[in-house]
């Protein structure tokens, strides 16, 4: 008998494939280079600060906007690294990771029928958040093989129904860091069409030699229309803590706060002082971590090339892309489903991040935020592909 109750169900091919690949990794004993989280912890002084906070009884609801020391640390960190000055009392909101900040912002500002311009391939939560708000995704391609922004396609994406532009740089899954010409073009169009801009900058510090990340909020006419989102998870290797933030003009942040309070309300009480300390004292740790990550990027790139998978070496993030056609595959999903059985390694197919799936069909994403010995073992196993 059919249920008398009905609910809207959001299905995500990204969520499905991640679950499938994780299950395959366990079932086959594979090295998992699919999921994007580090396999080592962040700075010891940050971890100790969290333990001490628990011991000291920091275990109940924190203030709705986040504890003052963390909001102050976020503002000081952003001023120090990006030259952007935000009032910690009115222009900074602490969230349950960047994902909640994105969801709350989209729910606050996108109404049914509004168009949201975003870089395609999309981080998976974008699609769900826009769908829940009743918005319409308008993808602008960062497509292979060069993964460059097409400025003509970008300009054509704006219509009278455009409400919001969502910019992710450094970009997951491609590893692209948008350059000055790209960011200036986005800024010019946002001002011309008078639209809100949301920037997802969770990988702001994971940028490698030769590339520079610049926040879109720093461009002329942009601070007053931009909600800047980031988090501690990627920067400090603490993805499970889920401490993120949104920054912007007070009137914009007030609206995001009004939605956020009915999502999680608050979270992460003992982690908030720990992240505050990391932001205040962790610049040297970040620099060392990024140098180490660049070495692991190069290690995996060399290993993939040795088995015939020439990588698009990323400028940022901890993801790398390869085209699987040189190994006789034309479908990344088929490749990723066979890879654990053939070589004992797991990766993620690109096409689940696209509306235009054909554009991502031959590409596969690999995570290199793993220990050097794990990458060595993965490369050794991948040798089976060339035999």
Automatic annotation (TrEMBL):
Gene3D superfamilies: Aspartate Aminotransferase, domain 1 (3.90.1150.10), Type I PLP-dependent aspartate aminotransferase-like (Major domain) (3.40.640.10). The keyword Transmembrane helix does not apply. GO terms for cellular component: cytoplasm. Keywords: Aminotransferase, Pyridoxal phosphate, Transferase. The keyword Transferase applies. CDD domains: AAT_like. One of its GO terms (molecular function) is pyridoxal phosphate binding. Residues 31-382 form the Aminotransferase class I/classII large domain. Its cofactor is pyridoxal 5'-phosphate. PANTHER family: FI04487P (PTHR43807). Belongs to the class-I pyridoxal-phosphate-dependent aminotransferase family. NCBIfam families: PRK07777.1 (NF005855). This is N-succinyldiaminopimelate aminotransferase. It comes from Microlunatus sagamiharensis. The lineage of its organism: Bacteria, Bacillati, Actinomycetota, Actinomycetes, Propionibacteriales.
């Amino acid at each position: 008998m059919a249920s008398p109750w009905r609910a809207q169900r959001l299905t995500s091919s990204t969520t499905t494939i991640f679950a499938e690949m994780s299950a395959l990794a366990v079932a086959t004993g594979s090295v998992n280079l699919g999921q994007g989280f580090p396999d080592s912890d962040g700075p010891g002084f940050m971890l100790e600060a969290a333990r001490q906070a628990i011991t000291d009884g920091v275990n109940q609801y924190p203030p709705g906007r986040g504890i003052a020391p963390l909001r102050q640390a976020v503002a000081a960190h952003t001023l120090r690294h990006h030259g952007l000055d935000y009032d910690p009392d009115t222009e900074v909101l602490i969230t349950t990771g960047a994902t909640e900040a994105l969801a709350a912002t989209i729910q606050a500002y996108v109404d049914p029928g509004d168009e949201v311009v975003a870089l395609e391939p999309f981080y998976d939560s974008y699609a769900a958040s826009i769908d829940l708000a009743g918005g319409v995704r308008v993808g602008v391609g960062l497509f292979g093989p060069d993964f460059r922004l097409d400025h003509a396609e970008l300009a054509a994406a704006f219509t009278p129904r455009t409400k919001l532009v969502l910019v992710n740089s450094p970009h997951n899954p491609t590893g692209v860091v948008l350059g000055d010409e790209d960011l200036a073009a986005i800024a010019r169009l946002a001002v011309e069409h008078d639209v809100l801009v949301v920037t997802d900058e969770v990988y702001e510090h994971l940028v490698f030699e030769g590339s520079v990340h610049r926040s879109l909020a720093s461009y002329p006419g942009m601070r007053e229309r931009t909600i800047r989102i980031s988090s501690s998870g990627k920067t400090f290797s603490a993805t499970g803590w889920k401490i993120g933030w949104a920054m912007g003009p007070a009137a914009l942040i007030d609206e995001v706060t009004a939605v956020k309070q009915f999502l999680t309300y608050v979270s992460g009480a003992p982690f908030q002082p720990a992240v505050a300390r990391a932001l205040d004292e962790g610049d040297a740790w970040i620099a060392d971590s990024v140098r180490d990550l660049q070495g692991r990027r190069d290690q995996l790139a060399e290993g993939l090339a040795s088995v015939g998978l020439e990588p698009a070496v990323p400028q940022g993030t901890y993801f790398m892309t390869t085209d699987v056609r040189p190994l006789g595959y034309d479908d990344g999903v088929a490749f990723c489903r066979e890879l654990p059985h053939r070589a004992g390694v797991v990766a993620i197919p690109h096409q689940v991040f696209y509306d235009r799936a054909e554009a991502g069909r031959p590409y596969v994403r690999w995570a290199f935020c793993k220990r050097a010995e794990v990458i060595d073992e993965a490369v050794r196993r991948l040798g089976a592909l060339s035999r």
